[in-house]
Amino acid sequence: MGLLTGKTALITGAARGIGKAIAIRFAEEGANIAFTDLVIDEHGEATRKEVEAKGVKCMAYAGNAANFEETQALVEQIHKDFGSIDILVNNAGITKDGLLIRMTEAQWDAVLTVNLKSAFNFSHAVAPIMMRQRKGSIINMASVVGVHGNAGQCNYAASKAGMIALAKSIAQELGSRGVRANAIAPGFIETAMTEQLPEDVRKDWIVRIPLRRGGQPDDIANTAIYLASDLSSYVSGQVIQVDGGMNM
């Protein structure tokens, strides 16, 4: 028996990267997986097969997480397909970096909409389901920049700070119904996105990390397992920074 056996997890933006790592690790612990992405292309289909190979049920759904009505319909379909939704991981996100004085309104709106509004949309849709079940775990994928800010990322930092506040507020509102909400704040994680950074930028990040290395997607996934499982049954409204000690 795995830590998540018998549970259904809904993970947004999970075709690749950290979301994919969470889907695979959850499956290894016995959870059935529903995951979403804007489109389910060859990457999404490959992820679905990889998750399914762990011996669990896995279905992939295409949808715009930033669209309220579309999300409501999508969650209703997932609930119908799986019978329950026990875990929600709000992982969908984008970056459009730039200094404040050069940032366009479009850059600001896009990041806040995809990152923060999508978390609201999915949380709003799953809340009644979890309240009826009188159990559930909502995990918002935030960032250390949502805790401390970061030059050149006003929009991204604001969206991630919002996801932290959203998790804390949900924890207060739904706790009496057995629903927990927490946030994970990753630091410098080795993904396809960070691989594109210039080498001098990467070296600057590493020297600021006491463990002297970047994190791996599985480092985030393992923390998500803790928050999704009964191991954290008395943990709610918290922010766990997974950053190698970068921000203490």
TrEMBL record:
Subunit structure: Homotetramer.
Keywords: Fatty acid biosynthesis, Fatty acid metabolism, Lipid biosynthesis, Lipid metabolism, NADP, Oxidoreductase
Pathway as given in its UniProt record: Lipid metabolism; fatty acid biosynthesis
Gene Ontology biological process: fatty acid elongation
Classification via InterPro entries: 3oxo_ACP_reduc, KR_dom, NAD(P)-bd_dom_sf, Sc_DH/Rdtase_CS, SDR_fam
Function: Catalyzes the NADPH-dependent reduction of beta-ketoacyl-ACP substrates to beta-hydroxyacyl-ACP products, the first reductive step in the elongation cycle of fatty acid biosynthesis.
Organism: Alloprevotella tannerae ATCC 51259
Start and end residues of each Ketoreductase domain: 7-191
Taxonomic lineage of the native organism: Bacteria, Pseudomonadati, Bacteroidota, Bacteroidia, Bacteroidales
Keyword Aminoacyl-tRNA synthetase on entry: no
EC number(s) on file: 1.1.1.100
NCBIfam families cross-referenced by the UniProt entry: 3oxo_ACP_reduc, PRK07231.1, PRK12826.1-2
Reaction(s) catalysed (UniProt annotation): a (3R)-hydroxyacyl-[ACP] + NADP(+) = a 3-oxoacyl-[ACP] + NADPH + H(+)
Keyword set includes Lipid biosynthesis: yes
Residues the record marks as active site: 156
Top-level EC class: oxidoreductase
Gene3D superfamilies attached to this UniProt entry: NAD(P)-binding Rossmann-like Domain (3.40.50.720)
Annotated positions binding NADP(+): 13-16, 91, 156-160, 189
Identification of the protein by name: 3-oxoacyl-[acyl-carrier-protein] reductase
GO terms of molecular function: 3-oxoacyl-[acyl-carrier-protein] reductase (NADPH) activity; NAD binding
Family, similarity comment: Belongs to the short-chain dehydrogenases/reductases (SDR) family.
Domain of life: Bacteria
